[in-house]
Amino acid sequence: MKYLILFFVIFSSVIASSQSTKANFKGKVKFVSNAPLEIIKAESQKLTGIVDKNNYSFAFTVNLKSFEGFNSALQQEHFHENYMETEKYPAITYTGKILDKIDWKSDGSYEVRAKGKFNIHGIESEKILKCKITIKNGEVFVSSSFKIALEDFSITIPRIVYKKIAEEIDITVELKQSN
Amino acid sequence: MNIYISFLLLLFCVHASSQKLHFTQYEISNELLRKNPTCLLRHQNKFLHTGTQNGLYNFDGTKKTKYLRKEGQNQHVTAMYHDGSVLWVGYDDGGIYYQDGDTFSPWIIPDDWPKSKITGLLKDKYGQLWISTYGEGIYIYSDYTLNNIDETDGLGSTDIYCITTDKNGHIFAATDNGIYTCTFNECQKDAKKLVINTTLDTEIIQHISYNPLEKSIYASSYDNGLWQINLHKNTSSKINGINSKINSLTQNNHLLIASDKKLIFVHQQRSTENMIIEGIDADLAIIDTYLDNEGILWVLCKNNGLISTDMSFVKYESDVQQIQAILKLDDKIYLGNDKGLYEVNKTGTSKKILQNENVLTMAHIPLTDEIWVGTFGNGIFIIDHQTGSIKHLNESNGLINNNVFSIIIHSQDVWISTLAGIQQISYYGEFKKSWNKKTGLATDYNYTIFSDSKNNLWVGTDGEGLVYFDNSHKIHKIGDRQTIISIAEDALGKIWFCDLDKGL
Q1: Under a CB-based contact definition with an 8 Å cutoff, are residues A112 and A103 in contact?
Q2: Which residue of A has its CA nearest to B134?
Q3: What's the pLDDT tens digit per position in A108-129?
Q4: How many A/B residue pairs have CB atoms within 8 Å?
Q5: Residues with Cβ within 8 Å of residue B29, at least 6 apart in sequence
Q6: Nearest to B252 by CA among B286, B298, B303, B320
Q7: pLDDT per residue over B362-390, tens digit each?
Q8: Cα dihedral B58, B302, B262, B236 sign
Q9: Mean pLDDT (whole number) for B201-208
Q10: A57, A97, A99, A100: which to substitute to probe chain B, counting the most B Cβ within 10 Å?
Q11: Which of the residues A98, A113, A127 would you substitute to probe the B interface, choosing the one with the greatest number of B C-beta atoms within 10 Å?
Q12: CB count in 10 Å sphere of residue A147
């Protein structure tokens, strides 16, 4: 819970420090666990965040309870109770800074790198992600695909199901500026 | 220092395409793995220092000693540096300790203290302590004052991955925005981007290592492989074939690159700028490596803890006897003795290249890809490495003497030492200039010739000591009536020579 509070503190500070340059984003995040014996997919449409176009800082979050999909209700229950411990760590956050320059005022497409700290399952870990930012008619779109290793966030999988859950999860993110 | 005996647990080997490395694993490995090891350092042939998330471990060969900060403080070691007398240890919370003998003490100064992770520590040639941090840029402790270099001083990012220094006291910092050169002289601080290559300028550089012999920096990018930056020529080039994420760069006689699943050795030859890259599949999940002065490679890895292997010798089987000259080129070894020249391949099979020649010396000329073979009594044979065709230089076509003791590359020419002085020859066999006793050399009998990193040319003589040519070809004499048979330069720029009677 303290990490969620921390995220909102950062989120608020980004807003407070840059009222004129802030951009709110909404979008979806998908994950795929591609293990030898089973493919598990889930998606949340509740990904939200903010980017300060002036100093390139950003903060994004998604509530774990908003993920839908899975192959069964029991699998979804295991996801929350056994692996993610959703009651204890209800959200995933990613806060950091875009490393490459962007001309926010002109239409164009940019391959940029974002460096930030993920907070998943109560563990903080820095990741550099490659993202595509597209600006079209003043609207900003963000997309990214990357992998998350469960080991990096102390998410342990029982040996008996290790062929059903991948060690690395494929994540796809799509966002659109909402203001 | 018999670390091997005390901690020997088991031996295992890692197969390579061209060689097999036998690793020794140490009993301490299990304990280290429980403590989450982070970094590795060995000073000279003394202690092996291992940083972990739960304290510092030292091995003295017979026992391990654990060093901890005060109870309740962060024990996560993130950087280590030995300045020759004291071991400096940096921590995840910005704390710095030093170990002097058995004393392990906090480094206390009155100034504001770094609060970010310490990523590098080093002393420059002025004795100033440089501290890189992940979040606050670089600190310099000079004249009892802590000074900070950050974005306001020109640094591109305050997240510094590591620092290294060159002989001139410049500090190079690896950042999210390429490499920065920093200086601090008489309270004047400066940070400038090392602008060499537009691609490299925007790379996230996570590891850098300075090579004093080549005057170059090796830099590994987060996602774009390994680069060599030649500071002398102001050029950069990407080293092909290295695509996986690099976990550590270590430099001693050659560069060692470690990723999760691979160990890569880049063997360098300063005079030719040639590189031989050997990759070894090693699924070890490497955290850090250290190649010590004894030629021992220490590897800290998630899969096996602490392991080591002796890198100083690689065995090639051959039936060639009384070897007088050796040259390694690609996968082949060329061996010369008083009966001829032999080519030996990896399997140990030898083929005779020159018959009935007394081979004394060899050199490879990269530009022409030719091997120059110096003989006693029959001049020089030039062998095309690709086709095997042979040319012959001797007294009848312009060589100053048929007794050739040493062949080197210097100032983009071939230089030879003989029993009638030394001679400068172009790569294509055109004779340029020669020196003998009449034209300023101490003697006509010159056994060895050597080009140092400052472009001086050294000549070892028979009974007249050392002679060197400076950059303007002015001749200087050093020593007395010594007979010098071999000359070399170490990484610190010191010249070593071997006297026939008195040794090294």
Answers
A1: no
A2: A126
A3: 999 999 999 999 999 999 999 9
A4: 12
A5: B9, B304, B305, B306, B307
A6: B298
A7: 999 988 889 999 999 999 999 998 889 99
A8: negative
A9: 87
A10: A99
A11: A113
A12: 11
